[in-house]
Amino acid sequence: MIDREKEAAVGSASNPHYLDIDGEGPSPTTSHPNYVAAVPDWFWSEDDPRAPFGTDDGHDTFSALQTYFADGGRDRDVPGFVARPISGWDLVSDAIWDGATGAVIAWLDADAVHARFLHGQIDAYVAAACGQFKISGGIHPSLRSSAERALTLMELALVPWAQKTVGSETDCYDEKVAGTRAVLAAAPEQPEEM
C-alpha cells in the first residue's frame, strides 16, 4: 500500500503499478484501467465472499501482493511470491490440488476441516490473480492457471461437497465462479518486461 504522497506516481510511466491508498481499500481510482473495465461492482467489496479480496485469505493475499509491489517486486516473479506462503501452509497437498475431482471429494469427506483448507487456498490464488490484474493490468500465465484451477475445484468439488454435507446454498459460489472466470478471461497476459 502507499501513502498519499506517493499517490501521484501510481500508474505513471515511472511506476506502472496501481496500489491502493493505505486504509482506503480497493478503488477504481487506484486500479489499472484494464481491471476497472472488466470487473463487476461487487469485486470492490472487502467483505463480500464473492469478491476476490472479500475473504480473510483473499484480503491477506492481496495485502501481501501490494506490499510486494510497493517494495519493488516484479510481475514475472509474482507466481513464486504467491506460491511460497501457500506451500508453507501445508494444508492442501499438491496431490489433492492437482488430483481428480473424486479424490478431492474423498479428501473433503475424510475431515470436514479440509473444506476450510481448500477454501483458503482457492481464495488465495483467486486473490493473487485478480490482485495482479488490478495492480499491473495483466496476469502472469502460471498464476492465471492456478486461479483457473482454484475455480474448477470450487465448482466441481467444494460446492457439490458443501451441498451434500451441509445443504449449502450455491448462489454466492455460482456468482463468484462465473464472475471471476469472466474477469480472468478479460485480463491480458502479463507482458514479459514488467
Mind sketching the topology for me?
Layout: H1 33-38, H2 56-70, H3 78-89, H4 94-97, H5 101-110, H6 113-136, H7 141-166, H8 171-186
Strands, total number: 0
* Number of helical elements: 8
- As a percent range, the share of strand residues is under 5%
**SS content category:** mainly alpha
> Which value, in Å, is the CA radius of gyration?
17 Å
If you had to describe this structure to a student in words, what would you say it looks like?
This protein is mainly alpha-helical and 194 residues long. Helices cover 58% and strands 0% of the residues. It has 8 helices and no strands. Helix 2 runs parallel beside helix 6, helix 5 (101-110) crosses helix 7 and helix 6 (113-136) packs antiparallel against helix 7 (141-166). It is globular. Residues 1-9 have low confidence and may be disordered.
Spell out the key features of this protein:
194 residues, globular, single chain
Quick summary:
By secondary structure, this protein is mostly helical. The chain has eight helices and no strands.
